[in-house]
Amino acid sequence: MKTRKMTKVRAVVGCLLLCTTGLNLSAQELKPGQDKAILKTKQGSIVELPGFLTEKINTIDYQKIVLPGPQFMVSDDPEYIRIPEAIALKEPVVPGAVRLYVYNVNGVKEPAKIDRKIVALIKNTGKSTMHLRMLKYSSQKPSLNYFQIGKQGLADFFASNGNEIIRTVAPGKSILIDEKLDKHIVKYDELVHGFYEFVVDQPGEVTVVQAAPSASVADMVKKITNVVPIGHANAGRGTFGVSNYQVINDKVIDTKDGVTQLMLADGVTDPWVVGREGHSGDLAKLAGNYGVIYDVEMKWKSTDGKGLALVTWNSRSGDNQWCSGMAASMVVSKGVFPEGIIQLPKDRLVTKHAPEAILIQIFPPSKDGKEQTIKLKYSPPGASCLPTPLIFIPIDVK
């Protein structure tokens, strides 16, 4: 059985030639009346733009700066854990900040479909007491609704401010990173989605474990030692070298130059980050860049008095059955709508395909014609098709 994400990433790879050869081939303009349709649309809602949406929109050249960030590990290979009791991730950590993205499914179906739990543990491998404090936290109830978990998980992570609670771990001992996961029963095919950023002051080892619902932390540590072989078929597994990017455009966007798009998470203009899988030591690639945080700053100006509408759409809907929907979350700076976190779409589960576009924000021109900056915080949404085209459309805001 092909997994949702495996097929999704293959769709991205299968379209690389199209994406590369289709760059900067044509100017694109709104059809009559579509500007008014955009202006009538609520933020985060779908607006239909027949004949407008295409991958052949002029792309924005940009620079990516690798920002300082936490140790970053992902548990998503295998996405579907077929072994009833097994370790799906085993990674060492050093004192400092850690980001952990858990994206695993109870895939046990032989000899029967059984209930499981999937939890994340941290072991203190140091010689002194470990202190752990959560900086950011997003934990979802296991569900078959992968799209909802993906976009809600991102929204919760962006909104999280962590807490001041300090937990302790004695040398050689293990605790749950997320105590909520230990209380959830995971049915067959349900997704467990957790997104965490925390700080520790001792070396440790992070594991993601699938076990019987009744298993205690002590039981899991003592009895479950087998690590599921890495398959390199899904998004990825391991500790990766990049956790945060800053994205800055090379040339200031000018509304007089027409429609442009910023292409993120396509694997070509924005390559996948690499790292190592801790158990085997093998090189690992994070196909999709899930869990990587992008701080985007787009400089723009209006020399013709127009503003900019920012929309996105599911550009790979025709590739295969797993690309039938897209759902994301993003933090966007102030425009016609207030600054803040927006789920995309916010009033439906997903956007499906053209002519559907999602309105993210509308940015008015400055009164004095001066340059402005659009700020976005983005991370590739789990369960959704990639890439995420961000289309900037000159529009008369008056």
- Gap from first CA to last CA: 52 Å
Strand content: 35-45%
Largest sheet: 9 strands, mixed
Number of helices: 5
Structural classification = mainly beta
Order of helices and strands: HHHEEEEEEEEHEEEEHEEEEEEEEEEEEE
Uncertain runs are: 1-26
User: How would you sum up the global shape?
Assistant: elongated
In round numbers, the mean pLDDT is: 92
Number of strands: 25
Query: What Rg do the Cα atoms give?
Result: 22 Å
The structural domain count equals: 2
Helix fraction bin: 10-25%
Detailed description of the structure:
By secondary structure, this protein is mainly β. It folds into 2 domains: 4-68 and 242-395, no CATH class; 78-229. It contains 5 helices and 25 strands. The strands form 4 sheets. Strands 3, 4, 6, 8, 9, 11, 13, 17 and 18 form a 9-stranded mixed beta sheet that branches. Strand 17 (273-276) and strand 18 form a beta hairpin. The longest helix is centred in the middle third of the chain and has 14 residues, at 146-159. It is elongated, with a radius of gyration of 22 Å.
Compile the SSE list and pairings.
Layout: H1 4-14, H2 16-21, H3 34-39, E1 46-48, E2 62-67, E3 71-76, E4 80-81, E5 86-93, E6 96-106, E7 117-124, E8 130-139, H4 146-159, E9 166-169, E10 174-176, E11 191-200, E12 204-211, H5 217-223, E13 236-240, E14 244-249, E15 253-254, E16 260-264, E17 273-276, E18 283-286, E19 293-301, E20 307-312, E21 328-332, E22 340-344, E23 356-363, E24 372-378, E25 388-395
Parallel strand pairs: 3-6, 4-6, 14-19, 15-19
Antiparallel strand pairs: 1-23, 2-14, 3-13, 5-12, 6-11, 7-10, 7-12, 8-9, 8-11, 13-17, 16-25, 17-18, 19-24, 20-23, 20-25, 21-22, 21-24
